[in-house]
């Protein structure tokens, strides 16, 4: 079990992420990240959700940039941090990067119709 209870916003973030509500994810985590901007774990999760949000709207260049930052920030927290299998999240980011089209932008319709890998965050207890 965790020695420190996880913040409510973090748990809500996981729920929103799993529901595909990536914009709302940003707002939830930003609130707690602003309290400690040196926390690259929260920043990495923020950037992952922003990357997914950009991809949904066809901003492939923005998604690529955010995924790269997310991977860089999260990598130091492997294998598990705050109950999340960070190594698995990093593997998901690599899958996302590989699934992005070559172009910098695609239409909203294309983005909506294109199958894209999904991932569900879950709290594991180690």
Automatic annotation (TrEMBL):
It comes from the Bacteria. InterPro entries: DUF309 (IPR005500), TTHA0068_sf (IPR023203). This is DUF309 domain-containing protein. The lineage of its organism: Bacteria, Bacillati, Bacillota, Bacilli, Bacillales.
């Amino acid at each position: 079990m965790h020695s420190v209870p996880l913040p409510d916003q973090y748990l809500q973030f996981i729920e929103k992420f799993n529901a595909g509500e990536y914009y709302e994810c940003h707002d939830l985590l930003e609130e707690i990240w602003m309290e400690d901007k040196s926390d690259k774990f929260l920043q990495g999760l923020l950037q992952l959700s922003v990357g997914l949000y950009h991809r949904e709207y066809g901003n492939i260049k923005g998604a690529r940039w955010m995924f790269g930052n997310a991977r860089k920030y999260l990598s130091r927290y492997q294998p598990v941090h705050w109950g999340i299998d960070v190594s698995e999240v990093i593997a998901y980011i690599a899958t996302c990067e590989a699934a992005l089209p070559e172009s910098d932008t695609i239409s909203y319709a294309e983005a909506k119709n294109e199958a894209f890998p999904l991932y569900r965050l879950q709290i594991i207890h180690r």
